[in-house]
Design a protein that fits this description.
globular; alpha/beta; seven-stranded mixed sheet; 36% helix
């Protein structure tokens, strides 16, 4: 079963967000997400593992239909306070979404896969309910930040004791295994995890920094569009030309030319 955040986890996260430096980190992550998704007015977004609603906040008051789902009632209570009636909130797990196929234009998995019991299944469900674009935000396994978190959880238990860190390559392989070679893009931020400031914020927003595979936070988008492969088929046709009888394999174009 996936790790479900309890009352104390929800309180700890809200206290974490109360710190200005931490809000700058979240803002950097949110800007990357919004820039890669580019949703339009009158479209819909599902946030899978919405938590306190922080990853839906950038889309408020933009004419977008917002939906969030999370297994934790305590996180949903916080999301209800933060979002009010501007988002439709549901309780449920990422591996079993209670929505029909292609229900949403966009879906977001923002720092959620780390706590899923079956991340592959969670991605498959996200692709199933998404029409246009899926955004996956992860703590990048190959980053200083993830290394720091892995070390700290050995010294002091926290929610990260239950987290599994992924690489960009792992997410790409899981998506391609389910959808095939669909259009996919990735970027990273948070290269300098211990120096959050306005200057580093501007540096992290540059294309050069975001193309690094070692940023602490990685954003991956995939467009779950159908792909078809066409194969030429040989048609078995009956022909009645002089001197010919029976059946032979012929192209329709060839028979058409012979009949003219």
């Amino acid at each position: 079963m996936s790790y479900v955040f309890d009352f104390h986890d929800a309180q700890d996260y809200e206290r974490w967000l109360a710190d200005e430096k931490n809000r700058m980190i979240l803002d950097l992550q949110q800007r990357l997400m919004v820039g890669m998704m580019r949703p339009g007015v009158a479209q819909s977004i599902l946030d899978i593992g919405c938590g306190t609603g922080a990853s839906l906040m950038p889309f408020l008051n933009k004419g977008i239909e917002l939906t969030g789902i999370d297994p934790s009632p305590y996180m949903l209570d916080a999301a209800g306070r933060n979002l009010g009636h501007r988002a439709d909130l549901h309780r449920g797990f990422a591996e079993d979404l209670p929505f029909a196929d292609n229900s949403f234009h966009y879906s977001v998995i923002f720092l959620t896969l780390e706590f899923c019991d079956d991340p592959r299944r969670a991605l498959e469900e996200a692709c199933r309910v998404t029409k246009d674009r899926l955004f996956v935000g992860i703590f990048n396994r190959f980053s200083l930040y993830a290394a720091h978190r892995r070390m700290m959880r050995l010294l002091k238990p926290s929610v990260y004791s239950y987290a599994r860190f992924f690489s960009i390559g792992e997410i790409r392989r899981m998506i391609f295994a389910h959808l095939g070679k669909v259009p996919l893009e990735w970027k990273t931020v948070f290269q300098l995890p211990w120096l959050p400031s306005e200057l580093t914020h501007r540096i992290e927003s540059t294309k050069m920094f975001q193309s690094s595979p070692f940023g602490g936070f990685a954003g991956i988008t995939a467009d779950p569009v159908p792909r078809f492969r066409a194969f030429p088929l040989a048609l078995k046709c009956r022909v009645n030309h002089a001197g010919c009888s029976g059946e032979r394999v012929a192209s329709c174009a060839g028979d058409y030319q012979n009949e003219q």
